[in-house]
Amino acid sequence: MTRQRALVYIHLAAVLFGLTGVFGELIQAGAAVITLGRALFAVASLAFFARLQRRSLLGVLTPAQLFVLVISGALLAVHWVTFFISVKVGGIAIATLGFASFPAFITLFEGVLFREKVRAAEWLVLGLVSAGLVLVTPSFDWADQGTVGLAWGLLSGLSFALLALSNRRAASGMDPMQVACWQNAIVSLIVLPFAVDQLPALAAIDWLWIALLGVFCTGLSHYLFVSSLTKLNARSAGLVIALEPVYAIAFAWFLFAQEPSARMLAGAALIVAAIVWSGLRKPTP
């Protein structure tokens, strides 16, 4: 692994993350079914990639680690279900930009819940993201599908922020690929009761889209992301992943003619700029 290859890997991961909403749009099924299929195919692909790297996914876990994995798996299930509802209701761009608010939620939680000192620059990032979301919102009317979609996207970002904090607080020291595999397995168990009745009616083409979503946008993207971190620091990787909304909007525009308005593009620019600037700043000692 060289730095150049790591950069290629992380950019490919960002593109695959951006394709998640595209598959959510293509699959003619409910959010629970999409989430179940994605998680099942992700477990299979992660097991395959772990075998390639000769890494064990079945190592002994302590009761505390298992508890953390159950909680984080539940948060991941909420994150995916709400994201796909957002895609179905508001479109790919709205859903992705709503989810992109998660750094702002992390800043809030660290300052309010965990009593960590939040610097003025971090509050500025929060303000920029909030301003971007105001611009992205089509109208402040709950009868508007775009507004409802953005609300689901924000809930997706909120649950992902809680997931990131739980992983940072309690899953440190665990193999990231092992964590991802266990979390996807737990997601499958959680959403199975809500999706099992709908599986027989799923068309063959939808199974194909779900398989591609689980293998490429989850299993492969996570493998590329983890592999790239052997040569890149987390900040550099985060700056590239911040481009995910850009890729998602471009895919939605090209494939589904979901042309963003000038106001939405301005809001997207503010959100992405805030995330990139946050990554460029020196971390707090």
Strand content: under 5%
**Rg calculated over all Cα atoms:** 18 Å
Structural class: mainly alpha
Number of domains: 1
Q: How many strand elements?
A: 0
Shape: globular
**Biggest pleated-sheet summary:** none
Query: Number of helix segments?
Result: 12
Which consecutive residue ranges, at least 5 long each, have pLDDT under 50?
none
Indicate the mean pLDDT.
81
Helix content: over 70%
Keywords: Membrane, Transmembrane, Transmembrane helix
Organism: Bordetella genomosp. 12
GO cellular component, one term: membrane
Protein name: EamA family transporter
Write the layout of secondary structure elements.
Elements: H1 3-26, H2 31-52, H3 63-90, H4 92-99, H5 102-112, H6 120-136, H7 145-170, H8 176-195, H9 204-228, H10 234-241, H11 244-256, H12 262-280
Organism: Bordetella genomosp. 12
Pfam families: EamA (PF00892)
Domain EamA: 6-136, 148-277
Question: Overview of this structure, please?
Answer:
The chain has 285 residues and is an all-alpha fold. It has helices spanning 3-26, 31-52, 63-90, 92-99, 102-112, 120-136, 145-170, 176-195, 204-228, 234-241, 244-256, 262-280. It has one domain (3-280). It is built from twelve helices and no strands. Helix 1 packs antiparallel against helix 9, helix 4 (92-99) runs antiparallel to helix 11 (244-256) and helix 10 (234-241) packs antiparallel against helix 12 (262-280). The model has no long low-confidence stretch (mean pLDDT 81).
